[in-house]
Specification:
heterotrimer, A mainly alpha, B mainly alpha, C mainly alpha, A: mainly alpha, C: mainly alpha, 3-stranded antiparallel beta sheet, about 10% strand, ATP_synth_F0_csu (chain B), transport (chain B), ATPase_proteolipid_c-like_dom (chain B)
Chain lengths: ~170, ~60, ~375
């Protein structure tokens, strides 16, 4: 103990204390504060960057999910639209088919009616022709009879064979 | 210095040696058991060893 | 005295070794004893602070001693300020005459003496002459200034490189930045706490690098032993002590003067506290004192061991012994490099621990529930 005290030098002690305090003050002002500040800032920066990266990742995921949903919706809509179109097409075909058949039957009916009326007219015409022929024949016959009986008969006969009814 | 005082200081130093040895040994065992907490064990070991070491120095300087 | 014992033990060791080392040159006991004494004095001299910066000394052919180095100013307060160069002492060989007073070096201390330089000793071999108040710029002070300048330039450069390179260290700073971060993350924050550590960081960092650098300088051939000087370690420990107690919170003082708190009724305290409080108060002083002694003793012991091992080379004067002591000295040097860092770490660590005690704040409500 006494040796320790004997070795203790007050001058060195005072110099050391003063110099150390000066050094502490200078380093605190010019070194430690800027260094620790820079290090802290850097660490904050890294932390923030990581956080923002995490956030971006999350946002991306959200966006992707949204996209997926949108795509799904679009697909569904497209399918619905296609179905509607198909239905419409079928209906239109059905409708067209129905109308066409109605039209066709109408035309057929009209044609039949026309045919019938033509036939009627033809028959009426024939009837009048037959009547005229008969009158002509009768006239000729009457004339023949007047000249010859045989001839008359022959004539009727030939006339009749000539005038074939249709 | 008188012989008994020196012997006393020697005994203190022996005790301190045993103490620090035990701390070191236990720390090594602990590290072997849990290598992941190496840093914490080392710090605790150094503090304990330093405190015991202080006693040893106190004895030595009391003699001198 | 303790140092003498260490030296005695080492010399004993040396002597036993020299028994079976083949010493070719026969020397009589007197010369061996003289050489031993010389070596002892040399080691002793090295461990002390000195008034000149001596790089090395050698013996000239004519037996005269030559010293290479430079003198430093001696500043004394002895009936007025006296400033003179330490070259006046001629390495303790002559009496320095300043004005009408005379001073002489004896075992590294300045004593006031008369013109012939007589120094009287008491029965325990202590000089009884008057010691003037000594504020000299010694070798230690020079080294403190050099270390301070080095640290300032180094860390100022690091701080600047951060500003210049956008928060990234350049050059030597790359080596020191992880150490600064280590001090912050593994010494300050765990011991003091996230909230208050910033207040103590400048002191912890400065003390850590100051001790480390000076320890390393002590291992260089410059032969300085600043951290192994009791005045330096006492100053550092005193600063830790002051910082601890001036920043102490209410809880810190409560812990000293009311250690048991609400766990004991007042009549119990009346019996226990006369014992407990003195112990706690003593602890406040013992903590920095152990810091002081630890650093001092470790550095001192390291230097003694190293120098004794180097001294062995000159004692053996054999091929084997020289090689062996060199190997040993080399191994111890490597250990000393580790010890240099370790002691800086321990000092910083324990300072941080004490600051942690001073800065802690308990939550008393929770404690009350726990009891």
């Amino acid at each position: 103990m006494e040796k320790l005290l004997g070795e203790f030098s007050l001058g060195l002690f005072i110099f050391q204390t003063a110099l150390f305090l000066l050094l502490l003050f200078l380093l605190k002002k010019y070194a430690w504060k800027p260094i620790l500040g820079a290090v802290n800032e850097r660490e904050e920066g890294i932390k923030n960057a990581l956080e923002s990266a995490e956030n971006a990742k999350k946002e991306m995921e959200n966006l992707q999910a949204d996209n997926q949903k949108l795509l799904q919706d679009a697909r569904l809509e497209r399918e619905a639209m296609l179905k509607e179109a198909r239905d419409l097409k079928n209906k239109m075909i059905e409708d067209a088919k129905g109308e066409a058949s109605i039209q066709a039957s109408k035309i057929i009916e009209q044609a039949q009616a026309a045919i019938a009326s033509e036939k009627q007219a033809a028959i009426a015409d024939l009837k009048s022709q037959v009547a005229n022929l008969s009158v002509d024949i009768a006239e000729k016959v009457v004339r023949e009879e007047l000249s010859n009986k045989d001839k008359q008969l022959k004539l009727v006969e030939s006339m009749l064979s000539e005038a074939t009814l249709n | 210095m008188e012989i008994p005082v020196m012997v006393g200081a020697g005994l203190v130093v022996i005790g301190v040696g045993i103490g620090i040895g035990k701390i070191g040994g236990s720390a090594m065992e602990a590290i072997a058991r849990q290598p992941e907490s190496y840093g914490k064990i080392q710090t605790a070991m150094l503090i304990a060893a330093a405190l015991i070491e202080g006693i040893g120095f106190a004895a030595l300087f009391a003699v001198s | 005295m303790q140092r003498n014992r260490i030296i005695k033990l080492t010399t004993l060791f040396i002597l036993t070794l020299s028994l079976f080392s083949c010493n070719l040159e026969k020397e009589d006991d007197a010369t061996i004893a003289a050489k031993k004494a010389e070596r002892k004095a040399y080691i002793q001299h090295h461990l002390q602070d000195s008034y000149d910066f001596n790089l090395f000394s050698y013996e000239k052919d004519n037996g005269e001693k030559a010293h290479i180095g430079f003198p430093l100013p001696v500043i004394l307060w002895d009936d007025g300020l006296k400033v003179f160069s330490s070259s006046k002492f001629h390495h303790g060989e002559t009496v320095a005459e300043v004005g009408d007073s005379f001073y002489k070096l004896d075992h590294g201390k300045i004593y006031k003496t008369d013109a012939t330089g007589t120094i009287s000793y008491d029965e325990t071999h202590h000089a009884t002459n008057v010691k003037p108040l000594d504020f000299s710029v010694t070798k230690g002070v020079v080294m403190i200034i050099i270390t301070g300048l080095l640290m300032f330039l180094l860390f100022r450069g690091l701080a600047r490189s951060y500003a210049k390179n956008g928060g990234i260290a350049k050059g030597v700073g790359r080596f020191f930045e992880p150490i600064i971060l280590y001090v912050r993350d593994d010494i300050a924050i765990p011991n003091i706490g996230e909230k208050k550590y910033m207040k103590y960081m400048p002191f912890l960092l400065t003390v850590f690098f100051f001790i480390w650098f000076l320890n390393i300088f002590g291992l260089t051939p410059l032969g300085v032993n600043v951290t192994g000087n009791i005045a330096v370690t006492a100053s550092l420990a005193l600063l830790t002590f002051l910082l601890t107690n001036f920043t102490g919170t209410k809880d810190y003082w409560m812990h000293i003067f009311d250690p048991l708190g609400s766990s004991l009724p007042w009549y119990g305290k009346l019996i226990l506290y006369p014992i407990l409080i003195p112990i706690e108060v003593l602890g406040v002083f013992i903590k920095p004192f152990s810091l002081l002694i630890r650093l001092y003793a470790n550095m001192q012991a390291g230097h003694i061991v190293l120098m004794s091992l180097i001294g062995l080379i000159f004692l053996f004067r054999t091929w084997m012994g020289g090689a062996m002591s060199f190997g040993l000295a080399f191994a111890i040097s490597l250990i000393e490099i580790l010890v240099a860092l370790l002691q800086a770490y321990i000092f910083t660590m324990l300072s941080a621990l004490y600051f942690g005690f001073a800065a802690e704040e308990h939550d008393h409500h929770e404690e009350a529930h726990a009891h």
